[in-house]
Amino acid sequence: MGKRPADPVLLDPDQVWQVIDAQRTSLADLLEELTDDQWRRPSLCEGWTVRDVAAHLTLQQLGLADMVGMVRAWRGSLDRTIQHAARRQAAALSTGQIVARIRGMVGSRRHNLGVTPLETLTDVLVHGQDIAVPLGRRHDMPPAAAAVSADRVLSMRWPPPLPAARRVRGFRLTATDIDWTSGDGPQVQGPMGAILLVCTGRLAGLRQLSGEGVADLTARLSESRTTGRPPR
Questions:
Q1: What residue spans of 59-162 are helical by DSSP H?
Q2: Which of 16, 49, 66, 79 has its CA 20 to 30 A from that of 126?
Q3: Is 141 helix (H, G, I), strand (E, B) or coil?
Q4: What is the separation of C-alpha 119 from the centre of its chain, rounded to a whole number of angstroms?
Q5: Eight-state DSSP code of residue 48
Q6: DSSP E strands: which ranges in the chain?
Q7: Which residues contact residue 211 at a Cβ distance below 8 angstroms, ignoring those fewer than 6 apart?
């Protein structure tokens, strides 16, 4: 008999927001330490600088008027429109203002119109790594929160699923630091945070994974390289 699938990892709404607050606080602390050169470095999100990603994280509480403004600035696709909004924000704010806005959201439970708090959670978890990993900085991601986010990414119908979430289908993903498994097929295993990065199209997460399915998963993700679409 095969191994029984792991029970879903659950966080209640208070726990979700506690993780979001902790991630915002620790990321703001990290950003305050960066040099001007580090703010200009490429992030894991292809085509986005560290500054672009940090500015994007200040846009996690958009209401109806903000959304209308984004539609008016439509760039032909949702991905390009989001990137345009992030770059405009990056150009409009100083680094100190970006840090202050991220820190100023701590304690707030507002989130973008049309999404759930789980998208806010995924946004801050993944984008924190988009910034930290290429800079060689440590920014801890709680495994339980990463598991909840991965379940959401792999099951979402709206917002539209990320391309990478479709490409990991056909593999059995297993975390080594928490009781979490998803999918069927060749085994791919590693830390929960690395699995979440791969499920959101970040190839850097592959370095921490092992198992019979890693080579095929790497080829599948690499041959259809995503643009690092930011999870919303």
A1: 64-72, 78-92, 95-104, 117-132, 143-155
A2: 66
A3: coil
A4: 9
A5: -
A6: 172-175, 181-182, 187-190
A7: 174, 186, 187, 188, 189, 190
> Tokens at residue 26, please?
């620790």
Hey, what are 73's tokens?
Answer: 């600035």
Q: Which residue type sits at 6?
A: A
Is the previous residue joined to 5 through a cis bond, with omega within 30 degrees of 0? no
Distance CA 124, CA 141 (A): 10
pLDDT for 63 equals 76
Number of Cβ atoms within 10 Å of the Cβ of 87: 17
| Structure tokens, 171 | 């593999």
What φ, ψ does residue 173 adopt, rounded to 5°?
A: -90, 125
Question: pLDDT tens across 38-52, in order?
Answer: 999 999 998 999 999
What is the predicted pLDDT for the residue at 101?
A: 96
Other CB atoms within 10 A of residue 208 CB: 15
98 neighbors 54 (Cβ within 8 angstroms): yes
State pLDDT tens for residues 106-157.
Answer: 999 999 888 899 999 999 999 999 999 999 999 999 999 999 999 999 998 7
Distance CA 17, CA 105 (A): 11
What torsion, rounded to 10 degrees, do the Cα atoms 76, 77, 79, 85 define? 50
Beta bridge partners of 173: 182, 188
| φ, ψ for residue 211, nearest 5 deg | 120, 165
In whole angstroms, give the CA distance from residue 98 to residue 82.
Answer: 17
Distance of CA 186 to the CA centre of its chain: 25
CA distance 87 to 51: 8
